[in-house]
Amino acid sequence: MKDATQDYIDKEEASVRKPVELYKIWSGETYWYYTNGDVAVDFEEAPGGYVPATISRGSVEYNSQLDVHTMKIQFAAIEVPVVQYIAQNPIDIVWIEISRLFRDQDPLEKSVIFIGQIKSVSFKGVSAEAECVGFEHFLKMGIPLWRYQINCNHKLFDAGCIAGWTLTKEDYKVGPATVTLDATKTILTSATFGGYDADYFVGGLVEFGNERRTIVAYSGNAITINFKMINLEDNDSVDAYPGCDGQIETCRDKFISSNIDNFLGFPFIPEENPARRMP
């Protein structure tokens, strides 16, 4: 984080000042750029600028050690990316950077006031409140790499799963599939889904733009997702991917037989606990 120039400091200390705040949010290689100002701010790498949004924040709060800080941010519930929290928390970490900027400064210069990740989002009516934690929280997370379990520790199509494959995730994509929806918008029907083995898609994903949903059932030409997609309508096109239950037989028979070398589970763990045997 660079030091502010004297020009920025003078504006910050002025008795009358009107800075705007910039919100850069990203997950993986997908970025969103927002501002609480009334017009877009063309700044840095943001394509199309930081666009105006219904967004505000609370103050930065510190814990008793003054190192891990938190902040609450209020959004309109329809804003991406918070809309993806309606169904469930995303698998990938969603990062956020908040900066202050004076639009009448030349050249433009921002001052970063918060960097962290969105921990959770709660919804009330048409508004959403995101609880954010500082970057220090991420550095202190204790996460085991692997579990001693029967199922594979890899996530389907991750680097460990497909190591040495000549195929990729895209080779297993089914789509684009034009779908029709039932009244709940959780059952997606398309002829493109037909002809696969029972439960082929169960545990897999449906993707529509930036939205993802888990497939919980499959029959005939219809797949069922766990929660409806906010923007999906009849005759829209989606992509579907098969699921994996993490069993060694599925790894061998459903995908590539040689992929058994990548299986990171312990399928021969005794199911009976000898310490609980009765004489």
Question: Layout of SSEs?
Answer:
Elements: H1 6-13, E1 20-27, E2 30-35, E3 51-52, E4 55-57, E5 61-62, E6 69-76, E7 95-101, E8 110-124, E9 127-134, H2 135-139, E10 174-178, E11 180-181, E12 187-189, E13 205-208, E14 211-219, E15 222-225, E16 237-241, H3 248-253
Parallel strand pairs: 2-3
Antiparallel strand pairs: 1-2, 1-7, 4-6, 5-6, 6-9, 7-8, 8-9, 10-16, 11-12, 12-15, 13-14, 13-16, 14-15
Kindly describe this structure.
With 279 residues, this protein is mainly beta. The protein has 2 domains: 134 residues, no CATH class; 94 residues. 7% of the residues lie in helices and 33% in strands. The protein is built from 3 helices and 16 strands. Strands 1, 2, 3, 4, 5, 6, 7, 8 and 9 form a 9-stranded mixed β-sheet that branches. Strand 13 and strand 14 form a beta hairpin. The longest helix has 8 residues. The protein is globular, with a radius of gyration of 24 Å. It starts with 5 loop residues before the first helix and ends in a 26-residue tail after the last helix. The model has no long low-confidence stretch (mean pLDDT 84).
